[in-house]
Amino acid sequence: MPLEQAEKHIDPVPLMAPGQIIKFFRLIPDCPNPQRADRSAGGLIPTRAFRFCEPMTSASAFGWYVFAPMDFHVLWDGSDIYWQYGETDDWYLLNAAQYPDFEHQFNQHCPDKVRGYCPPFLSAAPEPGVLKIWSGLIAQTAPDWSLLVRAPANLPGSQNYEHFEGIIETDRWFGPLFTNLRLTKTDVPILIKREMPLFQVQPLMRQTYDERALKNFELVSSLSDIEDADWHSFQQTVIDPGDAFNRKRGHYAAEVRKARKNR
Prior knowledge:
There is one protein chain. With 263 residues, this protein is α+β, with helices and mostly antiparallel strands. Strands 1, 7, 8, 9, 11 and 13 form a 6-stranded antiparallel beta sheet that branches. Strands 2-3-15-10-12 form a 5-stranded antiparallel beta sheet, with no helix packed on it. β4 and β5 form a beta hairpin. The protein starts with a helix and ends with a helix. It is built from 7 helices and 15 strands. The protein folds into 2 domains: 13-206, Deoxyuridine triphosphatase (dUTPase) (Deoxyuridine 5'-Triphosphate Nucleotidohydrolase, Chain A, Distorted Sandwich), CATH 2.70.40.10; 218-262, no CATH class.
């Protein structure tokens, strides 16, 4: 079979193991492995919330932490972005920059048709103060699963930048897993640390953000329209477990964990 035909008849391989919804590929050897997100947000949420607030701990643990491949600084002067890494005191004007010494490794290991297409590690967007950072990873999800890319849940944020959020259909997109930051301070060196989660990815079934599902909602617009069954549910949730002085701490958390165990 000619090579051209052979390339068109590559046998498909399973995306991932049965029951698995995500697979990470580490391209940059130095980048930290992704980690399952932590219920305590790295020990930074209040102890009382960790013990009793199931909504907060569940949100904290939903997904995986993704890290920057190395420590580096960026600086925005209101017009241009500069960056600095390693022991040097020099600042480099940022347009698009490769991870140090990685482009050669990429070209050594990739097929001929991919050679020369190493993803940039950092790039400045056309919009003022917007920075794109590649984690050094690619993520692939099972069919009909996507990833929400967002700031780490319930971790204290930086006063120097904000995360843009995005949903990537990673069952179709086999490309760099990155985040976009909006820098919010000028003329201040901003440190991005390798040891701290840079962003969090959370799995979403595509149907959960389908427009047909999101448009199909109902509003009960007044107290007089609330039905007896709904008032009964309110009573079971708010009143039956006890008032603010007698309610057992962590009642909701205990109920959720019990239901989760039964599932």
